[in-house]
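User: My collaborator and I are trying to settle a disagreement about how two of our proteins should look. Neither of us wants to argue from intuition anymore, so we agreed to look at predicted structures for both before our next call. Could you fold the first one, then the second, and keep them clearly separated?

Assistant: That sounds like a sensible way to settle it. I'll keep them separate. The first protein:
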Amino acid sequence: MAGASSPRYVEIANALRQQARRTPAGRPLPSESELAATFGVSRMTARQAVKALQAEGLVYRVPGAGTFSSGSEKHRAMGQLRSFTRDMTDKGYRVRSQVLTAEWFQPTAEEAADLALSPQSRAIRIDRVRYADDTPMALERVRLAPRCSFVLTHDLATNSLHAIMEERDIVPTEAFGTLVAASADSEDAARLGVDVGSPLLVERRQIDDQHGTRIESTETRYVGSEYVFDVHLRRPR
């Protein structure tokens, strides 16, 4: 909910966001003039709210026809390093996690390489099911460098790992990774509430801090029917 000092367009965007979530894809939403009349603001302010939701991928505009819902899927823009918590919270969802594992462990050779560790180093393993408004969205398997072990002292069911790290001046800054399609196995099905064989989007990424030092390697398995990655491409000159 917008605070007392929040701009009016934020209040309008929050209200329109809730309506867009309940509206099937392709169905019309209030026009800018209707929003302006409802909230007692200028059409320019209403347009700013609509543009904010366009950027989130929740609505789209057709010139001369109006504003329409993009559907109920959760969207995330490619090319931006944002935590699941930050991304969903900014879109107005309530975020929580079911912590499956949070411990020191002995990484495999591949896991050690992903974290740029020597073969005998230990690391941190955190496995969580991520929820948005009580809907299971993703099965997340995080591997962290030893210097991030302080995260184990925090409540990982309600806190963002990246926010915890930033409090210690370890800032996730640059990520490298892949995004592939996969089918849900028996563990995915049990954790995410889908059928075995259901489509998933699997994101794997390695993350460096502000000094270019590797801090994290993560595999996140998203429910394919609930999550959408938005891609903005531009033809090279």
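The second protein, kept apart from the first:
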Amino acid sequence: MQNIKPQRVLSAIEAVGPQVYRILREQIIQAELAPGARISEAEIARSLSISRQPVREAFIKLAEEGLVQVLPQRGTYVTRISTASVMDVRFVREAIEADIVRQVA
């Protein structure tokens, strides 16, 4: 399991759940939490000095976005990057960039 390092101190004026979600989402997108890494509600809650409920809520939102996989009785894992998805995104990006170059030229 990987250590969750809070990027900043949690704000007292904003709900904890959305803050935990943003921290985890950023760490996944920045690859600070590697694809395939197992992440633990209890460890994250302990590292942020909060209860497990906001972490559970963040996991649900991250799962809805496809950033984590929650496997009942087995754990929560950062979703692995799909080669097919990367190729699809690359194709779309190249098409958009080529169109922009044509318009500019």
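Some points you might bring to the call about the second protein. The first strand starts at residue 38 and ends at 39. The two ends are 51 Å apart (CA to CA).
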